[in-house]
Design a protein that fits this description.
globular
Length: 201
């Protein structure tokens, strides 16, 4: 998947730090990590959480929205973009970054989010980028030992319409898309919910 790797390389290029030359001054990069010690540490410490919020939003957006009030852009994006990733019904580590280039750009754009705070250190970008890459790999490497992946994300690949994020950021609980438990119980819950989650949609 050349396009995915190209996206990763582009987003990790040192020139990403040149936002400090933006003429409006709205995007600023500082190079002394301890110039703003509290801010610098806080951004790094909170990264696993705001990164997953970003992931949930783009991931949920690439699945059918199931609405008739507005055009279902999610259905279009799933069919033409995200379905490539979902060809991995039983994912492996290599499935993690197997994605359409459009999805790759959206996914790795999380590494640029610290710039929205008005200032960012290059380490914020690089650590987030590494977490994005390794998280995608580890997150698909099997949920039984010695694998370290999430069982809930495995269920997402198996049943499509559930578990768009990670359980430690409870957006799936809030929006009613969380599902877990032994396979037999999951099947019962899906039947009770009307069998939502067909991959043929």
């Amino acid at each position: 998947h050349t396009h995915t790797h190209t996206t990763q390389i582009a987003l990790s290029h040192p020139c990403a730090g040149n936002f400090s030359t933006h003429p409006t001054g709205h995007l600023s990069v500082y190079h002394d990590f301890w110039q703003y010690p509290l801010f610098s540490v806080l951004v790094l410490a909170s990264m696993p959480y705001w990164r997953i919020v970003h992931f949930y939003i783009i991931h949920r957006g690439m699945h059918p929205w199931r609405t008739t009030r507005i055009p279902d852009l999610g259905r279009f994006l799933y069919k033409h973009v995200h379905s490539l990733h979902h060809k991995s019904n039983n994912p492996t580590a290599l499935s993690g970054i197997s994605m359409h280039p459009v999805e790759s750009v959206a996914y790795f754009s999380a590494a640029l989010l610290p710039l929205l705070a008005g200032a960012s250190h290059p380490l914020h970008h690089l650590v987030t980028k590494v977490d994005l890459a390794l998280g995608a790999i580890v997150g698909h490497d099997g949920f039984n030992s010695p694998g370290g992946a999430s069982y809930t994300h495995y269920l997402h690949h198996a049943y499509f319409d559930y578990n768009y994020g990670e359980s430690y950021v409870p957006l799936d609980y809030i929006f009613g898309s969380f599902i877990s438990g032994p396979p037999s119980e999951v099947r019962k819950m899906r039947v009770a919910a009307g069998g939502a989650g067909s991959k043929t949609e």
